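Provenance

Sequences were taken from public entries as deposited. Structures were produced by running a predictor on each sequence independently, with no templates supplied. The record for Amidohydrolase family protein from Chitinophaga oryzae is shown for reference.
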Amino acid sequence: MKKGILIFLSLLGAAAVSAQQPADLVISPVKVIDIKTGKITPNQAIVVRHDTILAVTGVQQAKRYKVANTFDGGNQYAMPGLWDNHMHFGGGDTLAGENKNFLPLYLAHGITTIRDCSADISAAVLKWREAVNNGSLQGPTIFTSGPKLEGYKSVWLGDIEIGTTAELHQALDSLQRIHVDFVKITDNTMKPDLYLEAVKAARQRGMVISGHVPYALTLQQVTDAGLSSVEHLSYVWKAGVKDEAALSRRIAGGEIKGRDISRYILTHFDTAAALKAYRHMAARGTAVTPTLSLGQILAYFDQDDHAHDPYLAYIGKGLQKTYEMRVKRVMKDDSTAIAYRKEIYEKESAILPLLQKAGVKIMAGTDAGYLNSFDYPGIGLHRELALMVRFGLTPLQALQASVINSPVFLHKKDYGALAAGKKADILLLSANPLEDIHNTEKISAVVTKGRLLDRAALDQLLNKVKAANAQ
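Predicted structure for Amidohydrolase family protein:
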């Protein structure tokens, strides 16, 4: 009888083992940060299968999974991988290889998703997007606009220049054929009426629209047309004057231009008017990507010219040459102009808490990549988050701007949290980023699409980029 019971129990145990759900990776134990609420749950295990999180559960409960690999989380802090919601590939086909080196830089800094806000090497970017998605290329997930829409004789290379309704629809057709993730529309030579028409047409096609805003238009006009996001704070700063419509008419008529526009905004900015404009923006669902980093670099270039930044070892020589245009421009400023550019930068950036208060979705993006001087892919996002906190957001709000608001903007529901069914893009930190935003740089490991890269593997990525640029 006893022998029969033992056999039965043995068979029962074997059945339980065989019934265990398979998993590829378990990270345990960790303190899981809920970026939506700020709650931290200790003694957790994250269970991963392929590129998806199977479960976030207690350490003991994780033992019910049949696991191929385990990683000691060391009671460190786990959160979703970061997003850089505004970067640029570019500089021409001859610099494609240097641009491709951005991909390991992003992963090495815990950034598992990037949004390319137009490139002049879109054919290469689209190939990289596909290769990353199918696992044949290691890098962050890429969402891209492809070439942006502009007017005739734009200063930007590789854009699609349009001047008529027919050309607008041909351009949108071409973008949909290459399956862009969103549309980028900018204001260099785009006529204001065609700009509004472009936003409305893209919206009617169900496309997400990101853009610069012609100063001849008001923020209300572009949000009512359906613009999904405003890129850069200067455009929403303008909306804080007491009568933006009057200012826009004067700009359209050529009465006020250049630096005089900023001087006008500086003099006439009104907090009550700004909040009213920003609340309308929020009600229409228009987000903003502040891109504080580049402005800070250029405003304070007299104090730090970045010529000896150690990070330049990771940036190709060809890409560094694309920095020269902006450098030459700021180097021409005299002491009065230097003081003025700093004042404008500080005043623009100070509206960040007003946007947060009004309920506008703020997205973390750097403007890093080619052309934008010393605004670095990878480390740049950590600087952007720190600047967001400096100008009035809490560390949690800054993290939400990267991890939650960015995927919401692109209607991607399988990101934004460490939870069952979400993408297995995970950042493991040795210190709490809610206490100090600079702790996002204390990276112990990154999981991208379910594959774990420990600190040694991340350092190897950095070393390979450095070695490639040294040749």
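Confidence is low (pLDDT under 50) at residues 5-18.
The longest strand covers residues 65-80.
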